[in-house]
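Whiteboard transcription, Tuesday session. T.W. wrote the C-alpha cells on the left side:
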C-alpha cells in the first residue's frame, strides 16, 4: 500500500461560490508566508498555502478559472473576480498549484509546517511552529 494509493479528495473555492475547485492528491508543503505580497494581497498578516499536483486538479465552479494577477513575471495569483477572495498561486510551467488553505471547504485537515519570511512577520502574532520540513523550503 503506497502513499499514492491513499490520495484524498479536497474541495474548495471562494466566498461567493463563483470559483470552485476539486483536487485529488496529497498535500504538498503546507506553509504560511509573511512576505510583502502575501500581506498586501490578502489584507492579513500572512497567507496560508498548500500545494497539489496539477494532474489531479480541476476548476469546477460556474466562473471556471480564477482571474490571474502576476506579482512577478511568471508568478500568477488567482482570485475571484466577483468576491475578491484569494484562491491560488501558480507559476508558469509549474507542475503544482498552491491554493490558500482557507479556501478549502475543510481547512482543518491541513496544518502549516513552515513559516516563510519570518523576518517580515508581524510582531503581534506568534510564529508557526517549525516542523521537520523547515530546512527544505
Ligand atoms: Zn467569489
Ligand atoms: Zn508570500
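and on the right, the sequence the group agreed on:
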Amino acid at each position: 500500500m503506497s502513499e499514492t494509493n491513499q490520495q484524498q479528495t479536497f474541495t474548495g473555492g471562494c466566498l461567493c461560490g463563483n470559483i470552485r475547485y476539486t483536487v485529488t492528491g496529497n498535500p504538498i508543503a503546507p506553509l504560511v508566508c509573511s512576505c510583502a505580497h502575501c500581506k498586501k494581497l490578502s489584507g492579513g498578516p500572512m497567507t496560508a498555502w498548500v500545494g497539489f499536483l496539477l494532474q489531479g486538479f480541476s476548476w469546477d465552479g460556474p466562473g471556471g478559472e480564477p482571474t490571474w494577477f502576476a506579482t512577478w513575471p511568471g508568478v500568477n495569483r488567482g482570485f475571484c473576480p466577483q468576491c475578491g477572495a484569494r484562491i491560488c498561486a501558480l507559476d508558469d510551467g509549474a507542475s503544482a498549484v498552491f491554493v490558500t488553505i482557507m479556501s478549502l471547504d475543510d481547512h482543518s485537515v491541513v496544518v502549516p509546517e513552515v513559516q516563510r519570511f519570518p523576518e517580515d512577520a508581524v510582531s503581534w502574532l506568534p510564529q508557526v511552529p517549525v516542523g521537520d520540513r523547515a530546512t527544505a523550503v
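Someone added at the bottom: The chain has a mean pLDDT of 91.
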